[in-house]
Amino acid sequence: MNLEFFLNYIIESKMCLILKKKILKQPTIPIEVKPKKNVDKLIEEMSLTAFQGRKLAEVVEVWGRMFQEKEIVIWLGLAGAMIPAGMRKILGYLIRKRMLDVIVTTGANVYHDLFEAMGEKHYIGSHFSNDIDLKKLGIDRMYDVFADENKFYELDMWIEENFCSQLKDNYQYSSREILQILGQILYEETKNSESVLSAAYYHKVPIFSPAICDSAIGFSIMFANRRKKRNIILNSLKDIDESSLVTEKAKKSGVVYVGGGIPKNFIQQTAVIAKYQTGHDKGHDYAVQMTTDMPMWGGLSGSTLEEGQSWGKIDKKAHKATCYVDATIALPLVAHALSGRFKEMQRKGPIFKWKKIFT
Amino acid sequence: MNLEFFLNYIIESKMCLILKKKILKQPTIPIEVKPKKNVDKLIEEMSLTAFQGRKLAEVVEVWGRMFQEKEIVIWLGLAGAMIPAGMRKILGYLIRKRMLDVIVTTGANVYHDLFEAMGEKHYIGSHFSNDIDLKKLGIDRMYDVFADENKFYELDMWIEENFCSQLKDNYQYSSREILQILGQILYEETKNSESVLSAAYYHKVPIFSPAICDSAIGFSIMFANRRKKRNIILNSLKDIDESSLVTEKAKKSGVVYVGGGIPKNFIQQTAVIAKYQTGHDKGHDYAVQMTTDMPMWGGLSGSTLEEGQSWGKIDKKAHKATCYVDATIALPLVAHALSGRFKEMQRKGPIFKWKKIFT
Amino acid sequence: MNLEFFLNYIIESKMCLILKKKILKQPTIPIEVKPKKNVDKLIEEMSLTAFQGRKLAEVVEVWGRMFQEKEIVIWLGLAGAMIPAGMRKILGYLIRKRMLDVIVTTGANVYHDLFEAMGEKHYIGSHFSNDIDLKKLGIDRMYDVFADENKFYELDMWIEENFCSQLKDNYQYSSREILQILGQILYEETKNSESVLSAAYYHKVPIFSPAICDSAIGFSIMFANRRKKRNIILNSLKDIDESSLVTEKAKKSGVVYVGGGIPKNFIQQTAVIAKYQTGHDKGHDYAVQMTTDMPMWGGLSGSTLEEGQSWGKIDKKAHKATCYVDATIALPLVAHALSGRFKEMQRKGPIFKWKKIFT
Amino acid sequence: MNLEFFLNYIIESKMCLILKKKILKQPTIPIEVKPKKNVDKLIEEMSLTAFQGRKLAEVVEVWGRMFQEKEIVIWLGLAGAMIPAGMRKILGYLIRKRMLDVIVTTGANVYHDLFEAMGEKHYIGSHFSNDIDLKKLGIDRMYDVFADENKFYELDMWIEENFCSQLKDNYQYSSREILQILGQILYEETKNSESVLSAAYYHKVPIFSPAICDSAIGFSIMFANRRKKRNIILNSLKDIDESSLVTEKAKKSGVVYVGGGIPKNFIQQTAVIAKYQTGHDKGHDYAVQMTTDMPMWGGLSGSTLEEGQSWGKIDKKAHKATCYVDATIALPLVAHALSGRFKEMQRKGPIFKWKKIFT
What we know:
4 copies of one chain form a homotetramer. The first copy, chain A, is an alpha/beta fold. In chain A, 48% of the residues lie in helices and 15% in strands.
């Protein structure tokens, strides 16, 4: 399998040098520092460097290629707690420009977005804090970000009392529907689309949060059931049904993974389901990931896009790029590089037609 | 806050040396190699070394302490894909000895356990494989493990056809109920409790998989709904309801995290919910984690147990230990160390009373 | 030690809210995407986000503060193989602007700089290559960079033959002297100062490479000794002597670590030696590190700057920042941010007076 | 290059199933927990699991294979600060059993070994300490290990005063010679060979520490030169000369890397030098590494053994294994597994003949 025979042959026939010349073609080009260089330009220059710097440029390049496709659905899988980290408006921008079409994310991300959309704040803190002292003060820590626990409590009460009063009993909701209603409320109350939820509502970008129960949104709705004898149903089977339809019906699909976890697996899985449903053996056509999860631990979070190809989740001919870097560095850089490169673009994504939710 | 005043004082009063002597008390003890040393002994010796070696010993020590508690619920949060990695019987052992009382895990872990319980195999592979070639052969890769895609397909069909025929329409299932039924079927068909699902069924250890839809179990049930017009409901709100009750009612609770992800967050969250429900401000009393997720990326997966204390998820007086190591190294070592140390023990865990599921 | 008493007191005296308000003061501010934002601006905005994004901004901030000091020596510790990765001109820029005063680096970095200064190239490659095939073609791989082994061989011959003919027998060289001579040759032959070695020569920035023997420069000089019966002496004790003098005599010192390894340890150590020599108990006054080495493995490479404070390597009042990120991402960003922020600055660093080397 | 043609062919010719069967041959075997299992047995069982657990077993397997070779030199590259972490006697054991023949290590490792051989101790500490407080008490921290700074100071004085009085002026020492003299002194004074230095002296295992100046041994010798007008010379070129001779003259060579850094690069490099010297294009025949350094950052420390093959550092037919794990976990496990497996073995390694050092 290692081409030994073929290589021996060309060595003998003096073709070796020609092959070598073909491989050693594009030198790495040292970056020159300029005081007012914009982000887009720098990232472009990084494409001729090496290691994760070059990979970051490749992520931008592959994501940008997706926009050239006429009929494509672009998935964003967003793990972690990006909103407390100041990534909210970047996501809003990507939604408005329609640089993505469907979002799958954690309960944390939608909860914290809701929190900020309500006017609350996350605060600059320190990861060297004494957590016992913070506990006494009612301050919750997320690495180097602080939040006021009381404010979280107020939001949880709002979800249990106000938001749940707008949900129907006995109806089977998907997380997408829950988040669409939440987005609509936010949008109608604030008329601004800076939050992820309201921007997504306004621009008709569905948000799935398959593990939404793994957050205060989930447990606050549960409390409505438990304490007010409601019968709100969140049928997570509906999440798979709806999300898999997106990939099944897409001519082409691209995926952008920021971190791993459920969001990545969930989107990867839609390609497997699509194959089962349609019989077409075709994975996602474009794939980028920005992550700090490593492949050697064997988990899906850190798995390479290549591994995904063995499963048919990523297409064998897919354009791919992986950059190992913290999302709070990657997202701002990649978003600004795309913004510079596609300044004039206003992409029109697909409009998904879901059955009406509100009675 | 840095005790400057106090320290200046003691320096002046010559108490410095006394304090230093108190701090420099226990030397690290070099390990001596013996040919037939058993795992338990070696891990014990590692408790007087340093870095992650010592931490591994601390994990064993803290987990072992949980068994001394009369009334405690021990949670296991298990991320990743541990079954293909040969960890199935270790989990079976921990269940049988009742070294844990409740499991929260990924869809992958229960799916792969089911697969092996059905007599199927995962295979030794290589992480240097050409994934395009594997695709052509119908081989799915998980880092250095291979599996036959056709066998997965057969299992998916079994779930859609056979298993779903035992589920009721219109009933709201939690993932625990689904997995209990699955465990019962396995147990009754095989009469052995080597698989996680059947052992858990037999020993009355509930398994939650809050993101079970993020697996082939989930999408195969969805296909039953879609293709056979079934109306199976997996209400994920019920998962929070049931799981939070466990922590609410427990006198004490201990948590064991193998990796991060949903399992860890879900279990952490039960302490927050318990506080909301009961008004008692009390986190988990014992906590260990074995993980390769790092704190600096700000996500919950890598968050320190100390960070959890600021939220009240982990109690301020909790016994804690964290070891940064791959689970396929940690689990066998820790399980054997516990096994050696508690050879005679047959712990009796709490029996959870859930309402009947089968009509 | 956990302030329990003090905190209980303030809780009782209702001062809790005041303290909380003081801690929760500065919210994280979401970044807004603008198409032509320059790097400096973006990094500044990242200072009000979180996780490693914010840390990157802090690195720029602390490094920038060093320039405000009148009498300071700024050390750069540079690990890895940054030159093949296109970082050569960034280093040249930092030297020219005198954003650093002394460099400690690996043999690899000076060797590859020499290689490129000679007009040779490193090439864009792939980390998915078949290394056996590359071997057959005479291509050396550094992750995703390729180089022509024959060209390396030619350079090694040049060092053994030409360069060594300019070195004296029986004289005890430090690595700094070797590299200064190399820089002078490069500068005089090319009259340009784009390479690290020639720029450093021209701008009188000394470069230490304490493990220079751990590179082809080292072994090629050894071959001159072995094959031509030369007696070139590289007394590594002289490296410590010279380098420690720098910190001993500096009023203030700042350190910039890109990666760990010998460069970091060597610079840390100068503070310990300075204390032994001068009796002044004072560590480095400013310290930043950009690294992918983690603290939990217990090594010096990944050790926190705080750990360095226990040793007195970093001063207890030092301004510090650590960002966990690949250097090929960090260096371009940080250099451009500094460049934007200190556009007009031409810092004058200290001039070191070393005894004459050439005869 | 992806075998497309060949694979299409076999698919058409129905050979696909045969190939698949050949690939899916060896299932992963779940480990069964037994209370008194010894380490060797457990590691053996891990060879049929997956991820880093299996890799650890492969490390043992490949290292063990080296012992079957009649004429082989086994190198150990040991980074970090393993002695404070309680690894001293494990290294002593490996030396006594002659499971290695030459050591390349950091200045830290030999310094801390000397420290403990002198009867001093490292102490169990905590990585959550306040380093400013530790500084005030004169306690140096290495992650979770503490040491008394005064004791270090005393040792440094001993090196400067006593040890240096046994070194000659004007003689060009290699680090190996310095460490051999140190080992001899320790051995003669203590008559025990539990320390790495004295065991290595007694068993004629040379130790190189190419960056020994990057430690308190180095700077204390420097102080002898500076303060007592000595002229001790540590010619690091001699380190390359001596070390490369080992690989040049070896029929076969094996390498064991615990961590990366200079030790790894230095040993890798001997294969390149050997080729230059002898014209034989042959890398190390066996290679294992246990490390937490990752390949994606492009540095030599984290580089794969495969990457080393492109350079000819590792032979194209070499037996190889890499395990990503902290050394304080890996070393005890691997040493005990080897000890169990080769209980009766007393390997006779090669005896190196160096010119006499003492006049």
